Structures are given as C-alpha cells and as structure tokens.
C-alpha cells in the first residue's frame, strides 16, 4: 500500500526525507491514546449519522484488535508511514479494507495529535501527583521518627540557629506541596479537547465535539479551532512544572550528598541506594542523589527547547511542533525515575542524631538567644547584638563555646546575666523558644506534621481518582 496522502504526488519520497520527517520512532508511545481518541471519534461519527453503524462497528472492532496487538508488543511500525496516526490507520485499512479509510472523516492529524498529547499528559500529571505525595509521606515518616533530633540550621552554609531535623524535612514537604498544587492547576488546561478543530478551521461534517469530550472525560473543549491545533502551552507548562520539581529534588539531593559526607556525617544512605568505587574500596557514593541533581539540567533543557520551538511559529499547525514529543517523553522518564528513587532513599536513610547533636553543641548557633535574653531584660536589640558579638569573640580567642563560660565571664560583658543563662543556651531551649506558627519549636513542628498528613491524604485521593486505571 502506498502513502495515505499519495494522490497528489508523482514521485516517491526521498529516503532521507522520509527518515528526517518521521516521528514513529518516538510517537509510538502515544499508540494507546491515539486509539482511545479514534474510538471516541468514530463512535461520534456513528451517533451523528455521518457513518453507518455497521462501518462504525467494523472500525471499532478492528481498532480493539490493533490495540491488543500493540499491548502485546506485536505491532510492526514502518518509517514510511511517518507517525503513529498513519501507522495505525494503515493497519486498520489492511485489516478491514476500504471501510477503514472512513475513520479519518471530519478529522485531521493536527487535531488528532493534539488530542493524543492531552490524553497522554493528563495521565502523567495524575501519576506525578501520586509520586510526589509518596515522597511527602517518606519525608513525613522521617520527620516523625526523628522528632527530637536537633541539627544546626544554616544560612550561607554557615551555622545559624539550631532547628529540629523534622522542621528541616518539613520544609521540603511544603515545597513539594506547591509542586502538586501547580500540577493540579495545570490539569484544567490539559483536560481539554482539541478534536473537531480539523486541520485548522473546523470541519464541514455535522460532528458533535461535546459528545467526544464527554466520552473521553475532557472537562472542556477548545473554543477556537486555530488555537486548538496550535496550542502547546500545556506542554510548556508541564515542562516548567517538571523543572520546578527537579529543582527541588536537586536541592534535597545536594543536602543528602553533603550530609552523608564524612565532614557532616549527619545521615547514612542505605546501601541499596549507593554505589562503590572501582578503585577505592572504602568508598560508598551517593550516586542516585548526584544523578538526580545532574539530570535536572536536561529537564531545564527540554523546557527551553520547547519554548524556543514555539517562539516564532505562525498560526496554526507547523511541522516544528512535532518537536514537542521527545523532550516531553524524556522529561516524563527523568522525573518518574527521580521521584521513584527519592522516596525510598529518604525513607531508608539512617539519621545520625548523635552527630547532629554534637554539631549543635560545638558552635555559636545559640548566640541569638543570649541577645534575646538581654533584650528581655530591657537592653535594646542593637546594643545586645554588639555585646554578644564581643562575647563570641572572647570565646573564639579562648577556645570556648558559650556554654563553657563561667558566670563571672558572662557578667564581665553585662551585669544582667544570671544563672538562668545556662538554661536559655541549651539547644532544646533555643529550639522550643521559637514557638511561632511555622517556627521550629517542637509543638509547632508536631502541628505542621499533623496538617501535612491531611494534605498528603487529599493529594492521594485527587491522584487516585484520575489515575488511568480508575478512569
Ligand atoms: N507527527 C505529527 C506531529 O507530531 C502529526 C501531525 C502531522 N500533521 C501534518 N499536517 N503533517 O506533529
């Protein structure tokens, strides 16, 4: 059989052109969505009296057969049929003859491919929300298991003030919550039907787009046919949301790399998530965290690539848009891999609370609290800051930490110091003193964990309802 669009042509396509323009090598990933869309389309053609029911039944039966062939991995694709749409249509015509040629009535590959992409991405968004919620659960699990653990909190990677390790982990839960909310919001713009826009202007057949949308579970249909076939904003938005998730994953990866170094020694990653060195027998490398950090680059690249493809395209469809696929598939794979590994890697890491506690007792991260101590006794904050600065300098010069000082050393700097200063300087006291909403005090963190538990439950419910198997 020759090309489905062969009529106007008198010459064979150049072999290199065929290879250059084909997309079947990668868009075969859309095979199931393509058939899902075709089934809805042909059902509508029958309902609207555009095709006789007999033809519709034959086409549907054959499409189901092709779907099973694809699912069993028995479908053979051919580059000369360019893309997934024509490969499937060709298989249909081979199976049932010229009746198969009626499927494409009132439709173009332009609205067809856009529909496939919407169907594909909405499944992925549900899966990503679910994976992100699982990661949140892993973080919350570690926060609960280490609720009393204190570590130095950092600014500029310099020890700043002690915080609960749980508080630190819950910061990531908040970050991933924003990612989830962005994905959920984007769903509105993904769950829209382009089909019925035809090549660009609509179709002369009396189709029913609302019926197709209903069958496919789309909440809305595109208002403008030109926009329907040329909109790739929803893909840009997905790539942007994926970039943000990767950026967050890369930040936590960096912390895991630092924390598992001998210098920090705060955590130990499970053997199952590390690799060794081919030359240095003592090494246990945090490769997964490093690779997640590294792969963030390609996801950003896919976003910039897509924005650049679209930036000067005139309406409506242009072949440039075929470039939307590889970056999107690559992003889906990269993000999926990172999320699938990050949750169990966090859940299984060993937290070395002794090392964290030791770090907190060998620094000046309680200095702010002595300043606050003086402020509570009436000293203006700026003046207190100056006094404590000198006190810290005194400590450094004498090789001491604040808790090592005798009371008479304290009182040399201010008469207001009394015995209770030793209590104030204890890391537990320092942490629990920050008893504001969103602060690191134990009761505040416990409440944050409880609130997050509910949110994560709601995230799972949202994702479950939209997961492919539940639609
Ligand atoms: N393979 C094409 C793509 O991914 C499908 C649409 C082709 N449409 C066309 N008029 N050539 O964009």
UniProtKB/TrEMBL annotation:
Reaction(s) the record says it catalyses: 2-(N(omega)-L-arginino)succinate = fumarate + L-arginine
Domain Fumarate lyase N-terminal: 7-301
EC numbers on record: 4.3.2.1
Family membership: Belongs to the lyase 1 family. Argininosuccinate lyase subfamily.
Protein name from the UniProt record: Argininosuccinate lyase
Main localization category: cytoplasm
The entry's keywords: Amino-acid biosynthesis, Arginine biosynthesis, Cytoplasm, Lyase
Top EC group: lyase
Cellular localisation: Cytoplasm
Gene assigned in the entry: argH
Organism: Ferviditalea candida
InterPro entries for this protein: Arg_succ_lyase_C (IPR029419), Argininosuccinate_lyase (IPR009049), Fumarase/histidase_N (IPR024083), Fumarate_lyase_CS (IPR020557), Fumarate_lyase_fam (IPR000362), Fumarate_lyase_N (IPR022761), L-Aspartase-like (IPR008948)
Residues annotated as domain Argininosuccinate lyase C-terminal: 364-432
Pathway: Amino-acid biosynthesis; L-arginine biosynthesis; L-arginine from L-ornithine and carbamoyl phosphate: step 3/3
Any one GO molecular function term: argininosuccinate lyase activity
Protein origin, superkingdom: Bacteria
